[in-house]
Amino acid sequence: MKLSDCHNIDDFRKLARRRLPWPVLDYIDGAADDEITKARNTSAFDDVDLVPNVLAGVATIDTSCMIMRRKSALPLMLSPTALQRAFHRDGERAVALAAERFGVWFGISSLATHSIEEIAALSSGPKLFQLYVHKDRGLNTSMIERCQASGFDALALTVDTIVSGKRERCLRSGFTTPPRFSPSALLSYATRPRWTLDYVFGPKFRLPNLDGHVQEGSGKAVSIQDYFNTMLDTGMDWDTAARIRQDWGGTFCLKGVMSAGDARRAVDIGADAIMVSNHGGRQLDGSRAPFDQLREIVDAVGGEIEIICDGGVRRGTHALKSLCAGATAASGGRLYLYALAAAGQDGVERAIGILKDEIERGMRLMGVTSVDQLTADRLRWR
């Protein structure tokens, strides 16, 4: 199977499976407990139907929109995800360059494998920093100040990860950051020589945004579950969020909002946007899918704050359905991580290109020429 054989996001997953050792693939693929919420994140889109109009004159269409005060060529964002050099040696660099080429938002994590400064210098496109609030307040301040100095366009405070979900695939595989060659997975590493050689002989795996504060995850191997459970601030509350918004001073987003009440409180503290998200099903299994919650949240705060539907997106039509349901944009992580693992920057560019084509084709077949025409009357709930 080659990159040219990939025609949808699941195809990239199949190619990534051939190229990654199984503990690494399971880290991307896995979720919490029984992984019910992860599956629901995508299947939720199947419960609604698009209603097309015809004879609408769609020779010229405009897929662009404003997201958090920056123009995006598509109503689609690449969500921030951690540890990207574990999937491909170029990591966040590849994603940043691909996103810039297509004019879409991308984000990097506090646990990114390239630094805030390096990514900022690499891309002039719209970029988001995802902040995990650590117990070390000096580290939180350092990351915010580095993002300010580097010109990041928005800060997303992750609010759904005060403790780790139970990611059973990682418990079984022993996956850590940095990845370790565990005895149970030696054969898988040995039969994926390209990945293994890139990891062993490539640049040292590190988490540079934690430099000077935390060794775990960079100089010292640790499971993601142990990292979250020991390093992150379980006392984080709405006062914390308001203080971080004030310290940041720029466009501010809360990532992980799932209730209408919390959406209302986000408006009250002056947030510019919320990402309706359950962390890809990796935290509270049995929770609602973002798309399932969208109508309730739009009814509560629509028009007062930007609403990004984050999770489960695998098709361009999923983005169109999100907009029809009232979202500003759709967003996802696995939709590009599989492609990154499969083929680096070329893979990410092909994945974005496929989703772009699907969005354009879907708009034409629906009879709309701009994203603001994707309204609730174009959607039917079964």
Structure description:
The structure is a single chain. This protein is of the alpha/beta class. It has one domain (3-370): TIM Barrel (Alpha-Beta Barrel), CATH 3.20.20.70. 42% of the residues lie in helices and 13% in strands. The strands form 3 sheets. Strands 4-5-6-7-8-9-10-11 form an 8-stranded parallel barrel, surrounded by 8 helices. A two-stranded antiparallel ribbon has the order 1-12. Helix 12 (260-268) links the parallel strand 8 (251-257) and strand 9. Helix 14 packs across helix 15. The mean pLDDT is 95.
Features:
382 residues; alpha/beta; TIM Barrel; eight-stranded parallel barrel; two-stranded antiparallel ribbon; 15 helices; 13% strand; globular
- Report the C-alpha radius of gyration, rounded: 20 Å
The poorly predicted ranges are none
Q: Name the strands of the widest sheet in spatial order.
A: 4-5-6-7-8-9-10-11
Tell me the CATH superfamily.
Aldolase class I
CATH fold call: TIM Barrel
End-to-end distance = 37 Å
Proportion of residues in helical segments = 40-55%
Shape: globular
Write the layout of secondary structure elements.
Blueprint: H1 9-19, H2 22-29, H3 36-43, E1 48-50, E2 65-67, E3 70-72, E4 76-78, H4 91-102, E5 105-109, H5 116-122, E6 127-131, H6 137-150, E7 154-158, H7 168-173, H8 186-190, H9 193-201, H10 224-231, H11 238-248, E8 251-257, H12 260-268, E9 273-276, H13 290-301, E10 306-310, H14 316-324, E11 329-332, H15 334-366, E12 379-381
Parallel strand pairs: 4-5, 4-11, 5-6, 6-7, 7-8, 8-9, 9-10, 10-11
Antiparallel strand pairs: 1-12, 2-3
Helix pairs in contact: 1-15, 4-15, 5-6, 12-13, 14-15
